[in-house]
Design brief:
Six copies of one chain form a homohexamer. Chain A is an alpha/beta fold. Helices cover 34% and strands 24% of the residues of chain A. The first copy, chain A, is globular.
Chain lengths: 319, 319, 319, 319, 319, 319
């Protein structure tokens, strides 16, 4: 029995030390990151049997990705690309603080996953999966990736898994209009939508308060659950006609990348364990706040820690 | 002439880089720490001739402890354990920030100091010591350590040293009731008690405002001085019937571990130098605030720095 | 279907930078190491579906072990010790070069695995395992560990796995006589014995040339295969009455720890894949030589690399 | 055509890791810094063709300085000192946070630049320079440096460059009275003066509000432009009888050293590009705020980043 | 007056710490490397006014390349690619030691330089250049790069520069036959050819001793100078009908990458300074041996060091 | 009772990582080193109660020196220089390997010790010292240092200590003739001379075999002991008319700096412990060979390690 299956691209993440610029750095911290594997890691850390599906070059760099995901307890279902030119997507991340901001440079064109097809993925794992999750990044990568996303969603749905989808618009990959057209065509097979308020506005052309947006989306696309995230103002969920609000837990932010994925991972972990939507929102927010204290995309946290944040909101010193 | 003698366990302190979890770290920062040697280092940094007494395995790890304490000017009076199984206590420290908090994992069972006896310690150093200090951690380690603590306190007191004791309750070592029974039996030989407000409540079962607690303890156990610490709300001392209040100096906290020991070290440094209790409280608070800006348990500070904090409360740039 | 199951203790491995002494180091490189998990990692790197069985404290340090083994593709079957005092064995490693030598300090007494019992291990994995491997370190840890080793060997043997055993005498754990008595009592359930020539002499009291020792051991204990290792002089195997010799492949040695385990892992990988004993010896020797170029206990190598060493004996630059 | 020429001393900058004290550090971060080369680097980063003039020992350490300045696009006009005793100035920098503060220890006595003469500098570069800049640190180094500063200012002025001067009083180099006497004698050849409010008070003996000070200095010394900086309260410029005010942009400060030089560099970059004084103040303030997020003395920023801060005041995440 | 102009691709070079594998590394050392810029850096280090021509993405990564080359004194003539998808070539380098070998993984497809054209390069710099150098890597990158290589060689030749060409066959970029066809078509405009003996055999189909190969190539293609390199067996030059032999200088090799480029840079430095071919061979061999002791592709050496190696062959301790 | 007192300058030692040049390094390893404190540390490591006398600036850098020496068990008798310009000598060390060699750059002019006088040193420690040691570096630093060296030697000798002197010629400090004149004038108060064969030739103008040189020096200056060191060819001692030869122990050399001082420290440790000259030579050679495996100037070794090298010549792995 598998709890959670995700599908998407994972890249090498290269970042200079704090205070050092990409222009002049002499070293990179090396991690891996990708929205869907970030969710799988958060899920696995919180007790789910998680599987991540993707395509990677058959090279030490491809194995680098698998190694880090496995370390966090995720099982990997990888189509290995034997091509001479098969490449791993890379992203460069410079944390700047204000007013410099955080700079992300993608070098992901023509990565192995852009040629992924359903035939080469071990989709049998979906047959007894509780949940399937992917994001709006994957279909933006290539036509093949978009088509495979559609097919995998369909199969997951057919197999009885609860499917969730994080819209995750990336302006460096496509336009609002392209995203809208491609993504809305996938919504038929999606049970739960996660979407940032600003993406709902810009991509899905939804205006008004979060609660109205949620109702509108649920109505128009038949989602069972809609979760709207609003940065510092917390999240809102619409489920079974009921609305749930969840504020953020304050955090000393060391690395904000992956916070949204940690939220989704925490939410799904609670849902897969049978929790209600309001408890899932608490888990999502707590996992996200813990993530902010950890370097890298990944939420390496325990259920105990999440529960303590939910109960107390802080850590202290234990000795 | 020796100014300050302390007695207790010092452990290897292993901590991953900021933002990295123990689960996945590839490196540890290596330091040493222990309440009593922390006090000795703060004292030595501030000009005291300080001696630390303990028992260590005769191994590179035991020498690691001595090396670091000596670097900070502390003389060491060590009983070397030649046993094959002699081990050094270790503690793992993960700084998390909020809401993750700070996690301390002790691996100190059966460390060399748990078999310490008065015979193997160079107690002659007490004969001309101005002050002796130990804490409530040492008697919690083993029956032998408790018995030796009692004997050393007795000898220090008989030799004319001013004895001080920091209650320092450690829930991972014993219960409130065990601590209360063992520690109060030692108070006969203690001139000055340092105790956190919450430990006074939980361990010594004292309720009410800090000033009442101080009066009660002074009355019940005959302490010459009682210092109550209250975290952000500062410290309060009762001495010769007079009450002194001391707020904390604000600090950019990089590492809070050892703050309390720095407070005691600063306090004792001023007292040993003939300062009044109110000046000693200022030194304690200033040393503690400086400690918070320094990685590791140890308050590596100068009298000039402490005096500047007392006078100005901040640092600035000098050039 | 599982290819290889191993059982034994894995410790945290802490080592200072090259040229720095334990007495004075300010940082440790953090890895994990243990003979049986080293073998499992080598096997997994070379394509085996490997499982490692053991007992660990339920703590970030216990998870540190699992994380690193999983990263290398090993599945873990862990009995988690929830005790407050449950501890992870640790070893400190200082690489010295000549004439300083390599210094290993163990701090493994009372580690979680010393209380391991068959009930708490997921032994079902043995039911369809091709091979089972353990070493003479495990029974040296405690009576419980010795008893469990015996029981697991018995069960593996009964389930039809080929069982192998690396004698691996550790002088810091027990005497030659104690080792001899305990280990020989296990040999009934062992199909293949790996033993260093010097251990065969000192522990098993075998004299003479390696080939004689091999014949003697095979005769006396009924081993199907005996592999004698002789450091720089290579290895010798006796199998089915036939003797095979294997020289070492030269290597630029960066870290010699784990070389023997890499040899066993390479040997078993080839055997599990259906290779002959002479080909297995080549794989063992090649894996061992590659390991020497890699920091840490673990042989992170590929079948392609092993085959290239077997074919050419060296690397060069490929671009 | 050269945009900006600066003249002054650049030192090796050695700083321990955050949280570590100079007393005990085992490593230094190695950079170079000096007010005039800091300005040149900020200018070059923002698009100016910048040249830095100085004298250095002909040694790897002298080349270390040139290497880092060149990396940031500054051309160097160096008089190489072949003397056996020629030395590079060094400064040790310990970042403390509050209340420890930042400690700077100079070791710059008798550095190569203290013997600099006009004959050995490639002053031809001034002939087509738009701007020339130096500071009140250079003439404090030695009589020769003071005399050369005067001569270079004179030549730059005669060649038609706009000359600017940052008073930059250093109490470790000379007294207020010495500085006043030497610096005011240079003002004849200065078109634009940058001065901190507190230096205007202490060195130039000017009292009153910043605007009065600016008017007084402009009147007494005939400056075309006077810029008064007031720390957190922002800057004020008097130019052509008009007064311009500029608040600071908030920043997450990682390293405050070099902030003032970044301000000057940003200001001059905009002025050399033909910008008005108010736009130049914005560029100065934005460059200074970006600098605070970067380790080291140098403002490695782009015009795009400066413009975004001017427009929005913050960074965010772009992806 | 420019001494040396080179043209080609420079990549980001990412390598894990010694003993760590790409599969598992948590950090990369970050450098830049490319045959033609390596030659320019060696030349600049040895006193040449060197210029490197290429095309880079207008991004922090593109600036990273320029920053490092400038640091070593090379002037850069860069066509900046403003395209959204403009990318910098990357190469991953794992130093293994024997028998693991050195592993290079290129990720350079579609890098900015593959679209380079003569129009966007500042070729005016060739007009007063003493020497021009490029390699057989550049034309292998794309048709555009091959065509531009031809045009730049032609222009350099027409402007009177001595042109040199290092054959540098890369099997990961093209076949022997493709290389032969493209490269021999360029030889018309080449005065001096550098070629490894094995490339002369495989690509140019030349058999026999090095001296015969050199004569054959000089005759067939009209080269003024032919330099054949033979790894450990040293180099041989044919110039003006005369043959010169040069053995290698022994070195403690820390990083062999870039050794061949250092040889060419040392050779050209001596030739541009008016040295004879035999002296140039000595400089080439000495520069190459010094390079082997330095991490990274670049030969950061001084003329004094090269001369000392030529004179004495070794270093010693000077103090 | 003090075993060994030494007197001389100790400097900050700054070195870039292996393979990195001073020209471009971004970090320094920070240690302290000086011939006389190196000897004191070797002595203390081997069990002597050692004291080092010198003068240091009263600054964090001065305390850095004291901190490291204390860490290794040396007591320090320091005259603190309160002058604003008081500076600590510094030396930059680049390890190159062959043929690059090791490069040492001193920046020690006008360091605090150059003004040292006997009045400010705590010379009372000499009154019960077994041995006193200094080197030919100290008198080369300044006239004051030379005069103080003479006076301290005289006092040590008068107090009954055995005095030893390592000639240690430094060409960067003075000429052969200057050294000869100053040093020979000190020999009246020296019991044991250590001198490298090449210094005996160049400075003391002694020709012939080592044994002749030793006899000549003993005769001419009345030394009780003469030890001649000859690099790889080992050492020779003349004592009481008897000649002793000692070969070197082979070592994997990581850092050769301080080898000679380790030799002296090992020699003196054995002599102070009552050992014969031949045993002292063994200890000297063994300590020197162990030092070569350790980064930094200091021989952090144990008597057990030295004895094992003397007995076996190598290390191996112990576990």
């Amino acid at each position: 029995m598998t709890d959670l299956v995700t599908f998407g691209e994972t890249m090498l993440r290269l970042s200079p030390p704090q205070g050092t610029r990409l222009e002049t750095t002499a070293e990179f911290d090396v991690r891996v990151g990708g929205a869907e594997s970030n969710v799988a890691v958060a899920g696995a850390s919180l007790g789910l049997d998680s599987v991540w599906l993707s395509k990677l070059p058959r090279s030490p760099l491809g194995r680098r990705v698998v190694s880090e995901l496995r370390a966090h307890g995720v099982r990997t279902g990888v189509a290995w690309d034997d091509g001479d030119d098969a490449r791993l997507g890379t992203y460069y991340l410079e944390h700047g603080g204000e007013p410099r901001g955080t700079n992300v440079i993608y070098d992901r064109a023509d990565s192995a996953v852009t040629t992924v097809s359903t035939e080469e993925l071990p989709l049998g794992v979906l047959d007894d999966a509780t949940a399937f999750h992917t994001t709006g990044i994957t279909p933006a990568l290539s036509d093949a990736a978009a088509e495979t996303t559609r097919a995998v969603l369909e199969r997951a749905s057919a197999a009885g898994a609860t499917t969730s989808f994080d819209l995750n618009y990336r302006s460096k990959l496509w336009s609002h209009a392209e995203a809208r057209e491609t993504l809305t065509a996938l919504f038929d097979h999606v049970d739960a939508l996660f979407v940032a308020k600003r993406d709902a506005e810009a991509v899905l052309e939804r205006e008004g308060e979060a609660v109205e947006v949620a109702h509108g989306l649920a109505t128009d696309f038949g989602f069972e659950t809609v979760v709207i995230t609003r940065g510092d103002r917390g999240a809102l969920a619409l489920h079974g006609g009921e609305v749930f609000e969840q504020p953020v837990y304050e955090a000393d932010t060391l690395d904000a990348i992956g916070t949204g994925d940690a939220f989704v991972g925490g939410f799904l972990a609670k849902r897969c364990a049978g929790g209600d939507v309001d408890a899932a929102l608490e888990w999502g927010a707590a996992t996200a706040s813990l993530k902010r204290t950890i370097s890298g995309d990944l939420a390496v946290v325990t259920p105990t820690e999440v529960e303590r944040v939910v109960a107390e909101g802080e850590g202290g010193i234990s000795r």
